[in-house]
Amino acid sequence: MQKTAMYAALMCAASMCTFVSAPASAGLYTDEVAKCLVSSSSEADKNELMRWMFGAMSVHPAVKSIAKVSDAQRKVLSQNMAKLVDRLITVSCKSQVQEAIKYEGNGVFEQSFRVLGEVAGRGLFADPAVAASVAEYTNYLDKQKLEKMFGKM
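Now predict its structure.
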């Protein structure tokens, strides 16, 4: 594979870590890469991935004013993410990545890193404090309207 194509594939993989993408079917070899990425990532690695995703999302205009992540912080997050991806694809899961690329092409990165992003995202939302914060909006629902529409709940 050309270096430019590999770099483009890795760029795409990094952007797909955000677990909000539409599901895609993966091949047998890509599934093995995804399994390896997940099993080779420690809780600290998954936390680093969550921090990077948050930093990346913080530049979106809809949240930029409430998510204060400095350019310097985002740079450190990106550097840490690069180290994590480097280790995962060139050391921890090297043979799986090589086989997947050989038989299934560059899509291995997008699809397998999506799985890792989804696992990290589930970890984020599984935290009791995050789960409570997510559920907080229910305190402000118009219960009368809901009961009128659905009956007593």
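The chain has one domain: 3-150.
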